[in-house]
Write a structure and sequence with these properties.
178 residues, Rossmann fold
Length: 178
């Protein structure tokens, strides 16, 4: 059964999201040096990662490889506390640095599990980049090297984040209200 639509209030508008992603791309280019391999966590990271790739200058972007892992601890709108990893990257994780990309770092469980998995697959350095960081919800300490926005403990949607698979395609970050 399809859940009833909810009201979504704008938290961060599309222009702010796009501007911050452009700033992050510049920061990554300046700090990372060699183009990294981007590994996005499906499904939430996909829009953010694609926008980040498009914000890189062309000569840099041409040398960035990317892939995805499929990992989640959510069932609908509730975290189960157990992280499932259903897909590893298929790209060769050579000796190039890796940027692990997620749409939101909340409890830290998913990032921690994926970091542990990637460390089994490569000896390369791995840094975390996220569009949204919610440190007040953290139960597992994880490094966040690049963050778009730090937000309060709100249930957010848009730009890849969803509520029961709805609202992922919004070009802004919204808060689901009852």
């Amino acid at each position: 059964m399809d859940p009833a639509p909810r009201t979504v209030r704008t938290l961060i508008d599309a222009a702010q999201v796009e501007a911050r992603i452009a700033e992050m791309a510049t920061q990554i280019v300046n700090e990372e040096g060699e183009p990294p391999i981007l590994i996005g966590i499906l499904n939430g990271a996909a829009p953010f990662m694609m926008s980040l790739l498009q914000a890189f200058p062309t000569p840099y972007a041409e040398r960035v490889d990317w892939d995805f892992v499929d990992a989640s601890s959510y069932d609908g709108d509730e975290s189960t506390g157990v992280v499932r990893i259903d897909r590893d990257p298929v790209i060769e994780l050579s000796d190039r640095p890796i940027l692990l990309v997620d749409g939101i770092v909340d409890t830290g469980r998913t990032i921690a599990a994926v970091l542990d998995r990637l460390k089994l697959l490569t000896s390369s350095s791995i840094r975390v980049v996220t569009l949204l960081d919610k440190p007040s919800r953290r139960v597992v300490s994880v490094p966040v090297h690049y963050r778009g926005f730090e937000i309060e403990d709100l249930f957010v949607v848009g730009y890849g984040m969803d509520w029961n698979q709805r609202y992922r395609s919004l070009r802004y970050i919204g808060v689901v209200e009852d």
